[in-house]
Amino acid sequence: MMLDLILNALHESGIAAINIYKDWYWTIAYEEAYHTLKKPTECEIGSLVDDWEWLEKVLCKENPSTTLDFERLGNVIRILKKNVYPEETKSKCLVFINLSDVAKLVTQILQKTDKAGFDTISTNINTYWAAKPEDEYNFNQEPAIIEKSFSEDWNYLKNNLSDSNATSSDVLESFSRLLMIIGEEIKNSPLIVNWLVCEQKHDCTKAL
Questions:
Q1: Which is nearest to 132 in space by CA: 185, 78, 93?
Q2: Residue 131 is inside which H or E element, if any?
Q3: Using an 8 Å Cβ cutoff, are 58 and 76 in contact?
Q4: Which region holds residue 14: left if phi is over 0, alpha if psi is between -120 and 50, else beta?
Q5: Which of 10, 116, 131, 147 is the most exposed, having the fewest neighbouring CB atoms within 10 Å of its CB?
Q6: How many domains does the chain have?
Q7: For range 173-189, the mean pLDDT
Q8: Closest CA to 42 of 30, 23, 31, 26
Q9: Measured between alpha carbons, how far is 110 from 89 in angstroms, rounded to an integer?
Q10: Alpha helix stretches (DSSP H) within 13-91
């Protein structure tokens, strides 16, 4: 599993947590990022604190898991390239995330995906729009918006992901986009009915 390789590489480097020192990030609405050839004219502002607070409640079964959790997880994975520090700095950060909790969340959400009937995910999405990575957490100016290729992201992960580069910026960026597109395709699938029943009951087995 790709995430296992990434988290294992971090663990072997002595890193057990993500310490987030910046809350806000630039993002592009799904409809404009993935479903239009027209370049978006502006970005929205997202919050890593809000993303993780929701995901923590999903992990504790206080909140139901939704398709948006793939996007939230993608945001958390992507910040790894900017904000991985030793655990001793916990008291100084805005959000403290144990990597073991990230692994548990992915397992929990993927189990729900499987039980809802999603054995495989296919997509017609190739190009998408994103804030330029260098600008994503910079609020001194509006970010540049660039066109990217999901097929290139996927091929890069399949062909280049290894123990030696599992925590590189390119790998983390590509993996985060993979999670986001999985969530988008689930949301637009006829099988979303099973997922929504799972959300209402908090238990996929009751929907089958």
A1: 78
A2: strand 127-131
A3: no
A4: left
A5: 147
A6: 1
A7: 83
A8: 26
A9: 31
A10: 30-34, 48-59, 68-83
Range of the domain at 86: 2-207
Token output for 115 = 């039980």
Confidence check: pLDDT of 86 > 70: no
Diameter of the chain measured on Cα atoms:
50
The identity of residue 152, as a single letter, is E
Q: Is residue 97 within 8 Å of residue 17, measured between CB atoms?
A: yes
**R_g (Cα) of the chain, nearest Å:** 17
Task: Read off the tokens for 93.
Answer: 């950060």
pLDDT of residue 80: 72
CA–CA separation, 3 and 8 (whole Å): 8
| 54 vs 199 pLDDT, higher one | 54
pTM (predicted TM-score):
0.80
- Tell the residue number behind the tokens 């604190």, with chain if given: 49
